[in-house]
């Protein structure tokens, strides 16, 4: 057996290629586009040397994958995590390319980051790292070239340090990063956008597949994984609408709320996470049970909506089976490639079994709200204007509705299945085919394939 050289990237490519089969059989000329689009336009790979609090030099590997610029400047986050390598950043940049296409905004795809671990670092160490990282990255980005943003490990604080470093190096105040502070070029709703957008997308899915589990009912049970930016705002939106959030998690374990999380408790977790704390410190809170070393999916006997929001491959085949047994009807990713191939197969087989089955939405569709509001931040920066919270939230809702509609219609046309007996279209096929056609057509118009 040949072991995959870039396992995460190969998984993402395989998923897209499989989804595209019915479309490519009917339109064989696009096979060339698939061969070309899978190769990143450019990868920048660099050394980052920074000084720790003891004056000792530390070294990390920095990257920026400029995947595709057919639809606009490269756009996508920066991941700071010890696991970061080229396979992970290529998979993320590849997914980002099609995700950004599904937002309908003018953004190409990119991703970057470093194998730097912000956990346990002082504020000064993080600042020095960000300055060192931007010293090199600044040569390769710009508001019309490549516009990075946050991802795992890169939040408001890091974006601030990175922006400050760029501004000093170039003597320019431009919108070359998104996720900026509200008083210095950021957009309202950007921090909330991925989580809120996920729920706006899920509301459309519920209305079509299982209106009995609408999110205004406390009897609708929601399991969420993760406890970072995406999961916090996902949970807050679910709570605001009225449904019950049963779980959150981090890399060490899961915290189950017997009667459901409260808004106040989510804020408390937000503060804890900012200080680098972990959920295990909340193990003795009344009403909450902590489970070390397990993800949420097997911990709740009944769940209607499951929302992976932590990282890639965070739902295994067995966990997917447990969710199906627990009665899950909607699985929508807030994370990128949250479900393993095995988990997706289980959910898709359940969907094909007809009414009452699971309906799965891939991250490139259901979590596109984050980068969509980044796109709106770029638009506001270009105009040197700031839109109101309501304006941005309404635009986000419209983008998620449009994205859902595109996935539904491409899924109906191109999943290669007979959709009889009330079987719902595959949103996986829909997202992959619709995103691919948009990117491929722009590439063709620009002479990238023929
Ligand atoms: N990291 C986010 C994503 O995976 C947001 C990227 C951005 O805003 O550019 O879509």
UniProtKB/TrEMBL annotation:
Active-site residues, Swiss-Prot/TrEMBL: 111 (proton donor)
Alphabetized Gene3D superfamilies for the sequence: Glutamate Dehydrogenase, chain A, domain 3, Leucine Dehydrogenase, chain A, domain 1, NAD(P)-binding Rossmann-like Domain
One Pfam family in the UniProt entry: ELFV_dehydrog
Biological processes annotated in GO: glutamate biosynthetic process
Marked site (Important for catalysis) residue numbers: 151
MF (Gene Ontology): glutamate dehydrogenase (NADP+) activity; nucleotide binding
Subunit structure: Homohexamer.
NCBIfam families associated with the record: PRK09414.1
Name assigned to this protein: Glutamate dehydrogenase
Naturally occurring in which organism (per UniProt): Agrocybe pediades
